[in-house]
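hey m, so remember when u said the tokens were messed up on ur end? i reran from scratch. heres the input so u can diff it against urs
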Amino acid sequence: MAKSKYEYVKTFESSTTLLPNTFMVVRIDGRGFHKLSAKYRFEKPNDRQALELMNAAATAVMKELPDINCAYGISDEFRQAAVSSYAIVRWKSSALPVFLNFAGLHELEASHINNLYNTTFWALRQKGGMDATQAEERLKGTLASEKNEILFSELKMNYKNEAEMFKKGSIVYRDYDNSSSGFSREASAPAVFNSEKPKLSKTQKEEERDRRVKASMTIENTDIIRDDFWDQRPWLLSGHLDS
């Protein structure tokens, strides 16, 4: 491409250097999902089949790429690696789901806040008889407690009864406790997960990769904002959140 009319694309290239002993998060967000969900009449605000499709796609990617420790998904986004091709294979239709990649860390609390808003918004429309503009105006400036009260008092809904997958999203991770590899929790975290990483021989690297491949894939709908989830699975964060 040098000295060609396409050489200008090099001006769009940029390099990013990762700090040592850090992990990378990739956010995959849905593109055109409004039209897709309308075409196939997804249930609002959450469609269980669509979410399970995304979980299956994320799991397939993790099986294909053993270096990925975990993936977190809610709504039309996943924080992991590209899942479009796997979702398309399982979709089997003319209008295909597409995911875009965004690198960076994002506040997980937003997922919970967004779902509470969406649940209340669609309840006001479906049960409260409001149009979109009216529902948006009703919710403008409201706190989480006020949205819960609207659901309970006005719409006879208890947000606590919503499915955990809708409220908390799905975390897909390599579970060494339940794996077929036979490693216990204490022994399961490969040396590559330790804060002080020794230099591994080629054979050791192959063994570590084999452990990752053999680890079972677990999907949970739980609160990953709290430390408990990560404290019980130290290998997921590679021991870099010691505080």
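this time it looks ok to me. The first strand starts at residue 26 and ends at 31. if urs says something different then somethings off w ur setup not the seq
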